[in-house]
Amino acid sequence: MPLFQWRHIQRVIIEDGFWATSVRRVLPLSQVLFQVRSGRNRRLNILLATGYQYPHLGGLSTHMALLTKGLEAHGHQVRVRSFSDFTPLQRALSRGPAWMLNRLRHGWGIPWTTTMRLRFLTRFLKREAGWLDVLNVEDPIAALAAQRAGLPYVYTVHGYATDEHIAAGRIRPNSWPHRWHLNLERRALRDAFHVVAVDSRIGRYVEELVGHRPVTVIPNFVDSDWPNQAPDSPAARAALAVPEDAFVILCARRLTQKNGVLYALQALELLRDGGVNWPPGCRPLLVVVGSGEQWPLLQAFVRERRLEPYCRLEGGRPHEEMALYLSAADAVVIPSVHTAGVEEATSLSALEAMAFGVPVVASAVGGLKEIIRDGETGLLVPEKRPDILAQAVARLAADRALGQRLAGAARAYVLRYHSHKAAAARFLEIYGDIRGQAAHTVRRHGPADV
């Protein structure tokens, strides 16, 4: 690589990438104060922002879509700004050099793509400053963009941003990209006016990382009206060409290590081979819906173990199509595992299955333990134990009355505690609570601040 190009990369990553120690001016009060008087007394203009693509396949995107719907149901106006708003050139500049940097040294593309996304998203936020009353960011990139734009923000934390890069193999522990991204994550949290966590463990993580107060836990939520608009089970099974004798086990997950989809396949192998007693008159059919870096691994497993008659790898599907799969399912499995400090939050996949009245078998990890009571609203099993997972699924296949009882209790629980409209009302309370804040100074922190 020519020397001048490398020096330019260093300047962008180090100087523009938050390693400069300048203090930004104090903004005029009219630009800084949230113009929130009361979420109940006036219509608010609310901007949701993310440095990633929207919409996309995954929980963050679904959360944003449902929050938008809930806020609009309360009479407020919502806009979303994301990586999807970037021009083709901006997308290419964010991704292309990052790929080349990763080829030179593992993980070095993360600071590049993060910095470029931050730079371009900042421009969008500045353009929206005159319109918005409330800014709610969804990730560290959007939070730092808000700081650069001079806008106060509420930060919804969906997971463990830096640890998730490690768990996915994008950066290595204790490397420079690791330290760089952890510094970014801390600063994104530290300057938030209010932090919302989607489960209590993530809330504790935020408090331990930056000592931030307050942190409000608002668990993930679902569209309570969605199941009523879905096709019935016979129509859904016919649309998906499901055999009449199939007991459909749905695993709708992003195909990454922490979601443990491989363990669902291993459980299926045990069911096929008679390692677990299976009731006569039906056969297991595992339907995996999702995409991700483990797709080649899962394809190879199915092929090598000759599981094709018992397994369908559907790939990624738009979220609106999931109603068809949920209506066709007899059970849903969430085989999540603890990986590199990362655990499942309050799983949207689990909540959606519960809302549709489908019995759930899930690993007893993270936020899953907060939304499922074993034997009451679902079945919990130890992580990384395909044998016990297979036994739990076989139990549901053999005892349909048990499945109906669990599913009925789960649906009642979700409709009461995880409705998108109720969650939106809680967000509006937070937006209202931050009125009257004094002028806020947005700083760009250097290494000494960490």
Q: What's this, in brief?
A:
The protein is an alpha/beta fold. Helix content is 47%, strand content 12%.
Assembly state: single chain
Into how many domains do the coordinates divide?
A: 2
Count of helical stretches:
18
Low-confidence stretches: 1-40, 438-450
- SS content category: alpha/beta
CATH class of the largest domain reads Alpha Beta
- General shape: globular
Strand order of the largest sheet: 2-1-3-4-5-6
Annotated CATH homologous superfamily of the largest domain: Glycogen Phosphorylase B
Radius of gyration: 23 Å
State the share of residues found in helices, binned by percent: 40-55%
Order of helices and strands: HHEHEHHEHEHHEHEHEHEHEHEHEHEHHH
What is the CA-CA span between the terminal residues?
32 Å
| Sheet of most strands | 6 strands, parallel
Q: Mean pLDDT, rounded to whole units?
A: 86
CATH architecture of the largest domain: 3-Layer(aba) Sandwich
Which fold name is given in CATH as the topology of the largest domain? Rossmann fold
